[in-house]
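Key result, reporting period 2: structure in, sequence out.
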């Protein structure tokens, strides 16, 4: 139990630390950040449950006002902006990513983690992110999807990095990749 709490807090801190990398601001209010890499790693390394809890802890800290989002943003106001859909999608994306890594055992971990990050932490998150952008920017879903396409190359790069880091960690310290230990 203590180990789980520690890892959840550590990965929430990882997401916060990735927010220190300066965001690339775009004209429609949703910055390009490194924090989605942290969400991907929550799923690929911690697994579905722990990864979701880590992201939820991070979002709780943001909601109470800590400036942990990229660019020093925090507080309830961020949940009323164009990036709200992505923020709502983060824990769901971490869950789906972790679930795929836990259940899919028939391929090398690097491939599984990469596919899981794309499916869970890109496709699933984009469903929520595009919906949030459409609502908050008063756009159609198709218009919001067009805007969101600018994020795809960076998110694919982050999925590749998450896959490589997860695979490298599994090689160096197999017991550290909990997404592979606890699901049989």
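The corresponding designed sequence is given below.
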């Amino acid at each position: 139990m203590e180990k789980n709490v520690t890892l959840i807090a550590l990965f929430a801190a990882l997401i916060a630390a990735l927010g220190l990398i300066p965001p690339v601001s775009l004209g429609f209010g949703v910055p390009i950040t490194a924090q989605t890499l942290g969400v991907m790693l929550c799923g690929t390394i911690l697994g579905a449950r722990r990864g979701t809890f880590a992201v939820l802890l991070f979002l709780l800290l943001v909601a109470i006002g800590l400036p942990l989002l990229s660019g020093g943003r925090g507080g309830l106001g961020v949940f009323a902006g164009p990036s709200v859909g992505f923020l709502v999608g983060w824990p769901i994306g971490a869950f789906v990513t972790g679930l795929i890594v836990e259940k899919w055992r028939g391929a090398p971990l690097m491939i599984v983690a990469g596919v899981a990050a794309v499916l869970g932490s890109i496709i699933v998150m984009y469903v929520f992110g595009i919906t949030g952008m459409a609502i908050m920017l008063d756009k159609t879903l198709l218009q919001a999807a067009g805007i969101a396409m600018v994020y795809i190359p960076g998110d694919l790069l982050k999925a590749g990095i998450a896959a490589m880091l997860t695979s490298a960690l599994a090689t160096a310290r197999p017991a550290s990749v909990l997404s592979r230990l606890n699901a049989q």
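The radius of gyration is 16 Å. The mean pLDDT is 94. This case is discussed further under Risks and Mitigation.
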